[in-house]
């Protein structure tokens, strides 16, 4: 399964289920930007149900039903997240 397929699957779960939490663990901030661009490209426009946010330390897509897809930089501070689904950058394995 490639990144686009994995993201689409997790985004469908976020859309269909309330308070679904997904994490995408990436190895670098550059990869975080790439994942956010892919999410932006596969999100239909205009879409009032999804709010895309990208800050210095956090990138995420939030749905009105409470679901969230969070892009997480994999480091020692990335522990403790409670998630229903996870996508892991292949460089981390």
Provide a concise account of the structure shown.
Helix content is 30%, strand content 28%. By secondary structure, the chain is α/β, with parallel strands linked by helices. A hairpin with a 4-residue loop joins strand 3 and strand 4.
Q: Which short descriptors sum up this protein?
A:
93 residues; five-stranded mixed sheet; 5 strands
Low-confidence stretches: none
Oligomer: single chain
Spatially, the strands of the biggest sheet line up as 2-3-4-1-5
Class by helix and strand content? alpha/beta
Q: What is the overall pLDDT average?
A: 89
Provide the helix percentage. 25-40%
Shape: globular
How many helix segments? 2
Rounded to an integer in angstroms, the radius of gyration calculated over CA atoms is 12 Å
Q: What profile does the largest beta sheet have? A: 5 strands, mixed
The share of residues in extended strands comes to 25-35%
Number of strands: 5
- Topology as a string of helices (H) and strands (E): HEHEEEE
């Amino acid at each position: 399964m490639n990144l686009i397929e994995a993201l689409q699957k997790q985004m469908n779960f976020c859309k269909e289920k309330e308070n679904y939490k997904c994490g995408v663990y990436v190895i670098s901030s550059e990869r975080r930007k790439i994942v956010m661009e892919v999410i932006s490209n596969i999100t239909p426009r205009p879409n009032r149900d999804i709010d895309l946010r990208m800050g210095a330390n956090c990138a995420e897509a939030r749905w009105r039903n409470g679901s969230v897809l969070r892009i997480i930089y994999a480091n020692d501070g990335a522990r403790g997240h409670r998630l229903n689904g996870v996508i892991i950058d292949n460089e981390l394995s």
